[in-house]
Amino acid sequence: MIRSQWMIGLFILMLIASACSAPNESKDGNGPEAAGPPDPFGKYEEPVAIRVAMIVEPTKSLLEGETLLDNQYTRNIKTNLNINVEYSLKASPTNYNQKVSMAIASNDLPDAMIVGPVELKQMVEADQLADMTDVYNQYASPVIKRIVESTDGEAIQSVTFNGKMMALPNVQLKADGVHLLWIRKDWLDKLNMEPPKTIDELEAVARAFVEQDPDGNKKPDTIGLAGPGSMGKLYANFLQSTNNLYGFDGIFAAYHAYPGYWLEQDGKVVYGSTEPETKEALGKLRELYLLGLIDQEIGVRLEPGETIMNGRAGMFFGPWWAPYGPIDAANKNNSEANWQAYALPLDQNGEFRPHMSTSTNQFVVVRKGYEHPEAVMKLLNNLVLGESQGTFTTERGPTEYPLKVTYAPSDETEYEVKALRQVLAGTKTAQDFQDRPEYKMLRSDAEKIGPVKLEPHEQYDIQYWDPGKDRAMWIRAYALMVGGSPLVDNEMNGVYSVTYSQTKTMERKWEKLQKLEEETFLKIILGVAPLDTFDEFARDWKRQGGEQIIQEVSELNP
């Protein structure tokens, strides 16, 4: 009996000793594994380093005295997560993709970076990426998971290869893919004109803006319609379906032309750029350009936004968020410049039929072999949390946050417009939206919009705003209420692409085909090549691989 008791006692002591010698830390330093599941916001006990790629935008700015390595974002990350951010690749927006391609080709990769669908597929095929399935399942915050799940599986599917999540997808606003017509309404009012509903009316407005001296400086220096610069696009396409500033998307759509998109017609897949509607739209753009109604420096101007900022242009196409871009500078230069957005022009049936975007277009990838892939998920969790709490202070949003991608419900713009209208009308308060953290800026917007929006609250002309009260809030509110309202108040008969990703043949031939398309179309618009060059282009495009690609896209959509 005594021996039995002694053996039991010895066994208990061994269990205690074993427990005491067990490791204390989970793999991310958040405490004992037994304490619960991994913490999406858990702070590492020991510093963790991460080398990332960074887009450095010369038109954006950090706060005074800050650097890319030492700023409000890196300090916030260090304080909250104990992660030290370093940059192994820095590039401007114009050469970022080129540098990313070089890094992929040389296999000299940062620990994490943002890529597009083409690069993602290349890296998967080269076996360069970490499997992020468990990282996402265990470390993605509840808010990010709700946002991702709101796409009905589209976001997850976009990064899934052989059943594994090989990247972390962003989720973007559907509104970013709708390109509105922004107009100097003060010029319209001066010339006693209305916003142009049709292409013919748009031509008349552009002519008046060019010929009738709407800025009153007695010089023939005004531009009817701004256009893309040397690095811009004539229209968004299936690989880059959003945020195309200064393109001619709206004019193409009015002709039911959707170049750059894959369309289904009579049960067959066609490429919009080779369809007759695109030729018709190119003919009109050519006519407008040769009449001098479109910026005569399209395709070569280094900074097309300067025509808006310096008060020379009267119209341009762009997304709802244009006040974050050229309109902010235009207002600073001329506080009476009354830029308003419209879901125009309409087609022959009086409908607004824009092309629509995919719900995800950017992907955060992690280098295979990086020791802390969960750190990348934590960085993104921290970003979304900071945005929802109003942690970061900058007029243009946290543009320099490492690995900054958009995480937003696809209806965020429209939802906010409706909510802020209720707040301004006094029927709701900011507190009424505290249970919707996925709309991360809504509560802060509801609290801050009052001082910058003058009465009458339902009127959005520039005289009913006070940017001086809070510049950052004015930019945000003006973008939402002026740029977002057309999306709420008009029916969107949107057109989607059959696919937003590449096929096998595209990987080898798309760059050459796209160059052929872009150069041909620009030459047609500029009058360098005749309009019938389009027919030759359509034949060459199909012969040089397009026919095979159409077949592959058709197989994706049986």
CATH class of the largest domain: Alpha Beta
Give the beta-strand count.
12
Number of spatially distinct domains = 3
Q: Name the strands of the widest sheet in spatial order.
A: 3-12-6
Task: Count helical runs.
Answer: 20
In CATH, what is the homologous superfamily of the largest domain? Periplasmic binding protein-like II
Class computed from helices, strands and strand pairing: mainly alpha
Q: Mean pLDDT, rounded to whole units?
A: 91
The biggest beta sheet is recorded as: 3 strands, antiparallel
CATH hierarchy: architecture of the largest domain: 3-Layer(aba) Sandwich
Strand content: 5-15%
Radius of gyration: 26 Å
CATH level 3 topology of the largest domain: D-Maltodextrin-Binding Protein, domain 2
Helix content: 40-55%
Q: What distance lies between the first and last C-alpha atoms, to the nearest angstrom? A: 78 Å
Give the overall silhouette: globular
Unreliable segments of 5+ consecutive residues: 1-34
Describe this structure in words.
The radius of gyration is 26 Å and the shape is globular. The protein starts with a helix and ends with a helix. The strands form 5 sheets. The chain has a 3-stranded antiparallel sheet. The chain has a 3-stranded antiparallel sheet with strand order 10-7-11. With 558 residues, the protein is mainly alpha-helical. The protein folds into 3 domains: 35-171 and 360-389, 3-Layer(aba) Sandwich (D-Maltodextrin-Binding Protein, domain 2), CATH 3.40.190.10; 179-355 and 518-540, D-Maltodextrin-Binding Protein, domain 2; 412-489, no CATH class. It contains 20 helices and 12 strands. It has helices at residues 2-21, 72-81, 96-106, 117-125, 133-139, 142-149, 154-158, 185-190, 199-211, 249-254, 276-290, 306-309, 326-333, 373-389, 412-425, 442-452, 471-483, 485-489, 504-526, 533-556; strands at 48-55, 83-91, 112-115, 160-161, 164-165, 168-169, 180-184, 262-265, 268-271, 315-318, 339-342, 363-366. Helix 11 (276-290) packs parallel to helix 19 and helix 16 crosses helix 17 (471-483). Strand 8 and strand 9 (268-271) form a beta hairpin.
